[in-house]
Design brief:
The chain has 576 residues and is of the alpha+beta class. It contains 17 helices and 20 strands. It is 35% helix and 22% strand. The strands form four sheets. An eight-stranded mixed sheet has the order 10-14-15-20-19-18-17-16, sandwiched between helices. Strands 5-6-7-9-8 form a five-stranded mixed barrel. Strands 1-2-3 form a three-stranded mixed sheet. The chain is flat and about 115 Å long.
């Protein structure tokens, strides 16, 4: 209760009665005044009011209490008054201590501010110049630091983090995209205005000699740069606009997506993107070693591959056109001239889905191979996944990032499980994985994401799920000779993610393909060039498409594919 409150409440008491009223039922400590018309709710409030009056007036007042269930006021009992006075005294002592602490902190804060101001004023007098007597510094990237130990170098980069030790030493960790380097600034190097105002993400150039850290100490790469000169290249803001206030690991996902350009500066996000680059390189190396040629198909098309409901349509000089759902059809046209081909390109699906494994734009690794059987196709998909993982796992730096992001990861070595669609239906029902309404799955139904993942996670191994019914697959997938109900089709399912590859043999008979168009109600005119592949020397062939973001989500144990691309695009998200 403030002195202003006490003065206000005291003025409303009956001076002639010298009574403070407490009504445990109708009173209020917040709005009451201690009068019979506006009583307090507790004896503590009454004692507090009296206790803050001048001492000569306190003895004249008494406390009248109407307890709950009683009809009249009665003078407070001695024990209740004693208890209330003790509580008041304790509260007063606590308030005094809090006030003293606040005053002390204010004084310390003022002293600190004065000291900082003094240091800032002194820093204006400190000017750094490079010592011309030292050997010329060689510009290096941080990834080359170990090879330049014992030499004087200069390194450009961003301030990743910093730690001040006393008045004459600073540890500044700098990153340049190739690695991290701890720089040690001492004496005058710490006294400049730039040093005192240094903020995260400021770009700097640091000169000095690189050496191994002393035994028992640690630093990125096992070495540090003892600086002899440094300068700011570009300042980053501090205060409310500091990067730590713009993005933080526990922030709302929508904020992190909106600030994605800053999020990718973090170690985890940057590591994901670096592994992504190495994985893309490994896919190319795999296909190159296998004799495939890379092609670059168009992304603006006038045909569909995966159904019209997921097409992004736009006006193409007065004609309807679409962003490609898949480059498969174009890859097939390359088989007669180039043999086995592949592409790493973007595909687009206008799926209004908010699941953690869907994107509207994603990187599609697709391949088409002539003169193969369905078993060849399955073997090729399995070998590709194992080989790409082996390639990135063999690179020490990439392997370290994978282990940091996914410590439990073990490269697959055992043969992938091969399971037919109809066996998956049996598995789901035997393990009581049913529809939401409790009904079992039946042959012919598309298996949704949730039960598919439940089965994959329970089995705990990669699954090549094959022989899907024709009505739930794309028009170009051929029926098997043994069972015309099902197609030579496959999905590769990975634990923790689900489907990462979809593939099949392709219908290679001209008349059969025309019949498939008719079943789908598709006009064959826009596909004339695709039908010509069956007209001018057709052959058995097959192919597949792999979602690179899903592959990375599995490899790096990321919760969502949105973490596995630079700037994710999905429903309601087309920025930054």
């Amino acid at each position: 209760m403030s002195m202003q409150d006490i003065t206000s409440k005291t003025s409303q008491l009956s001076v002639s009665e010298h009574v403070v009223y407490v009504n445990e039922t109708t009173g209020s400590d917040a709005t009451g005044h201690g009068t019979v018309d506006a009583p307090f709710a507790t004896a503590l409030a009454a004692v507090t009011l009296i206790g803050n009056m001048p001492e000569e007036k306190q003895e004249a007042f008494k406390v009248m209490v109407q307890k709950t269930g009683e009809e009249a006021y009665a003078e407070i009992t001695a024990s209740a008054l004693k208890k209330a006075r003790k509580a008041h005294k304790d509260a007063a002592n606590k308030a005094r201590r809090v006030a003293e602490q606040a005053e002390k902190q204010q004084a310390q804060g003022e002293a600190k501010r004065m000291e900082e101001q003094r240091r800032l004023e002194e820093s204006l007098k400190v000017e750094l110049t490079e010592d011309a007597s030292l050997p010329a510094a060689k510009k290096i990237r941080i990834q080359d630091a170990e090879a330049h130990r014992g030499q004087r170098v200069k390194v450009f980069g961003w301030v990743h983090r910093q730690r001040v030790q006393g008045r004459d030493m600073m540890f500044v960790v700098v990153r340049d995209g190739t690695g991290f380097l701890q720089c040690v600034l001492t004496d005058r190097l710490c006294h400049t205005r730039d040093a005192l105002a240094l903020t995260a993400e400021t770009t700097v150039c640091v000169y000095g000699v690189i050496s191994a850290v002393p035994e028992g100490k640690s630093a990125p790469g096992g070495h540090e740069l003892a600086a002899d000169y440094w300068e700011v290249v570009g300042r980053a803001p501090g205060g409310d606009d500091a990067i730590s206030n713009r993005v933080s690991e526990g922030a709302d996902p929508s904020i992190l997506l909106q600030q994605r350009h800053l999020v990718i500066r973090g170690e985890k996000a940057a590591s994901v993107l670096k592994v992504r680059a190495r994985v893309m390189r490994a896919f190319r190396a795999h296909f190159d070693a296998a004799g495939y040629f890379e092609v670059t198909p168009p992304c603006m098309v006038q045909t569909q591959v995966e159904g019209g409901s997921t097409l992004f349509e736009f006006d193409y000089y007065g004609e309807p056109a679409y962003l490609t759902q898949s480059s498969q059809l174009y890859l097939e046209t390359c088989l007669p001239s180039m043999g086995a081909v592949y592409t790493l390109a973007e595909s687009y699906r206008a799926e209004k889905s908010h699941t953690r494994r869907h994107l509207s734009e994603y990187t599609h690794c697709e391949a088409e191979i002539p003169f193969i059987s369905f078993e060849d196709l399955l073997d090729g998909i399995e070998h590709m996944v194992k080989d790409v993982v082996a390639r990135v796992w063999a690179e020490p730096e990439t392997r370290a990032m994978i282990k940091q992001l996914n410590p439990e990861f073990v490269p697959p070595t055992e043969p992938f499980v091969r399971m037919r669609y109809e066996d998956a239906i049996v598995w789901l029902n035997e393990h009581e994985v049913h529809h939401e309404d409790g009904t079992p799955y039946v042959f012919g139904e598309d298996i949704p994401e949730a039960p598919e993942r439940a089965m994959t996670d329970a089995i705990g191994k990669p699954i090549l799920l094959t022989h899907f019914p024709g009505p739930i697959k794309a028009f170009y997938m051929p029926a098997t000779k043994e069972d015309p109900r099902v197609t030579e089709s496959v999905d590769l399912l990975m634990p923790g993610v689900g489907e990462i590859v979809g593939g099949s043999m392709r219908i290679w008979d001209h008349d059969e393909l025309v019949a498939a168009y008719a079943r789908e109600g598709l006009d064959t005119a826009p596909y004339y060039w695709y039908l010509d592949q069956r007209k001018y020397g057709s052959c058995p062939h097959g192919g597949f498409g792999l979602g690179v973001e899903r592959f990375l989500a599995w490899l790096l144990n990321r919760f969502s594919v949105r973490e596995c691309c630079l700037y994710p695009r999905f429903v309601d998200r087309c920025q930054p």
